[in-house]
Amino acid sequence: MDFSPLKKVASAAAEKPILKNFEDPDRARQFSVSVGDMLFDYSKTSIDSTGRQALLDLYESADVPARRNAMFSGEAINETEGRAVLHTALRNLSGDPVYVNGVDVMPGVLETLSRMEAFAADVREGRFVGEGGQITDVVNIGIGGSDLGPAMATLALAPYHDGPRCHYVSNVDAAHIADTLRGLDARTTLVIVASKTFTTIETMTNAATAKAWMSASVANPAAQFAALSTAADKTAAFGIDAERVFGFEDWVGGRYSMWGPIGLALMIATGSDSFRAFLNGGAWMDQHFQLAEPLENIPVMLALTGIWHNQGLGHATRAVLPYEQRLSRLPAYLQQLEMESNGKSTSMNGKALDVNSGPIVWGEPGTNGQHAFYQLIHQGTRVVPCEFMVGAEGFDNDLAHQHRLLVANCLAQSEALMRGRSLDEARAIVSGKFEGAELERQAAHRVFPGNRPSTTLVYPKLTPFVLGQVIALYEHRVFVEGVILGINSYDQWGVELGKELAKALEPVVAGEMGTDGKDGSTAQLVKTVQRLSGA
Ligand code: F6P
Asked: Is 290 close to ligand 1, i.e. is its CB under 6 Å away?
């Protein structure tokens, strides 16, 4: 794919201050997508009509609609693993069939969904009990896609949480499981082992630890375990009854899996109505993505804005800034979704990628981030495109004034980033306090360059339906960017090497093997750890 026309028009457009674009009174409307109750505003970027056309040309030449249809129709678009990519089937409650290799997968998907619902209801309503009675706590043990999605969503949907307490353990650091289990009663705890492969070392190690913990106070610990996995043989070997194993197929990628069994803890926390509303929100976005014209299509325009900033202008990172405390795990979730999907330097055809791979994604909820890293976003030397999001309404009606303050902060930040503050304005601020050279010096520090791009997504309120819309929106954005870059967004070979080396290093750290063959630094680090730990 030739990105040079884009780079050319993007650098030309970036010459014009973003604020100047608003001399056109219709700029905001023309460079926004408004669908249903959602507004995606990308008018505070340097994208102009020529630039947008260049982006749409890329979209056309990459044949995104054909790839999108291939994905939805179950073709094996994950070519390096020979798999279909059909997490969208998990949220398809329409009754329409979805075929993989000529077989309709929907009966299996819906059967698993109703098994999950029956189990979740049993746990919530006290028909499934522990040895000590009604389940009070659920511990989900998983990592990456088997943790980040449900953990993020459980927090996001806190107002809907009316089931047992849910805890998420991911890190192999013993501190995580130890701190989580401390204070829980094993006799009323359900442990869910969530692992697509059921081989991930962190998850299997934590699962064994949880089993040992439970064995200390429960006669039949396996009876208080459930498993979410594609590997039925391995869940059986772990001792979990098939009744409490919820399976899925290899066409659901780990980081796209929260819509199915991996969402079980979320379903137990919030109930199946909320979970279905979440699925329906995702399905709504699937329809929108498939049917809307590119200019009216939120995932497409979000993706093209990303391509503009990263490939067109070379901005290496983007910040995701939800003004929604309950979305505080969203940046971490999106880091996996985006960076594990599009952080690749080999294109589909096996050749080296000749443009930047997907960007570095980071962020924190507002307003907290404002008091931490926004300094750099406003006055640092690097430009960080920002993606704001905010709900029009909060949940705590008696604290509506706080929500207004939150919204005002969100909108003020994108305005400040775009407007900046000139030297003259800065001089006016300090003029009463300083004079002459000192006034100039003080004023210089108070200048904001402005012209910093951002987008804003506004939604009505963070309901389960809206959360489903937002997550599916980002999934499709990743897809569109991946197709334009010529990347397979659905494999993750880049995580393998570290896993292999960690396995080989464990006996070295334990002192069972020497450091021969290791580089000097690694050998030194091993020896230092051994010395300091007294091993
Ligand atoms: O290490 C990367 C990864 O394979 C992710 O893609 C995945 O979400 C995570 O590990 C966990 O994998 P599993 O669900 O198989 O335990």
From this structure: no
pLDDT above 90: percentage of residues in the chain: 98
Contact at 8 Å (CB) between 39 and 296? no
Q: Point out which residues pair with 83 in neighbouring strands.
A: 78
Q: Please list, in sequence order, all residues whose beta carbon lies within 8 angstroms of the beta carbon of residue 194, skipping any fewer than 6 positions away.
A: 140, 141, 142, 146, 147, 150, 203, 227, 228, 229, 261, 262, 264, 265
229 Cα distance to chain centroid: 20
User: Strands, DSSP E only, in 237-328?
Assistant: 245-247, 317-323
Query: pTM of the full predicted structure?
Result: 0.97
- For residue 482, pLDDT over 90 is answered with yes
pLDDT computed for residue 345 by the predictor:
96
Whether the CB-CB separation of 143 and 332 falls below 8 Å is answered with: no
Asked if residue 197 has its Cβ within 6 Å of ligand 1, the reply is: yes
Starting at the earlier edge strand, list the strands of the sheet with 317-323: 32-35, 38-41, 454-459, 386-391, 317-323, 360-363
- The interaxial angle of helices 64-72 and 464-485, nearest 10 deg, is 130
> How far is C-alpha 265 from the chain's CA centre?
18
Question: Which residue out of 83, 87, 146, 341 has the highest number of ligand 1 atoms within 8 Å of its CB and is therefore the one to mutate?
Answer: 146
Q: Which one-letter amino acid corresponds to residue 115?
A: R
pLDDT score for 397:
86
Confidence at residue 155, expressed as pLDDT on a 0 to 100 scale: 98
- The 10s digit of each residue's pLDDT in 138-172 is 999 999 999 999 999 999 999 999 999 999 999 99
pLDDT digits (tens, 9 = 90+) for 406-445: 999 999 999 999 999 999 999 999 999 999 999 999 999 9
Q: What value does the mean pLDDT of the chain take?
A: 97
Please report the atom of ligand 1 found closest to the CA of residue 255: 8
* Strand spans (E) along 360-453: 360-363, 386-391
CA 309 – CA 356 distance, rounded (Å): 11
Residue-wise pLDDT tens digits, 8-49: 999 999 999 999 999 999 999 999 999 999 999 999 999 999
Mean pLDDT along residues 120-126: 98
Question: Which residues are catalytically annotated?
Answer: 340, 371, 499
227/223 Cα distance (integer angstroms):
11
Taking the centre of ligand 1 as the mean of its atom positions, its distance from the CA of residue 113, in whole angstroms, is 22
Q: Is the CB of 229 under 6 A from ligand 1?
A: no
Choose among 300, 337, 306, 304: nearest CA to 68.
Answer: 300
Q: Which two tokens stand for residue 168?
A: 């998420």
CA dihedral 336, 342, 345, 348 (to 10 degrees): 130
206 lines ligand 1 (CB under 6 A): no
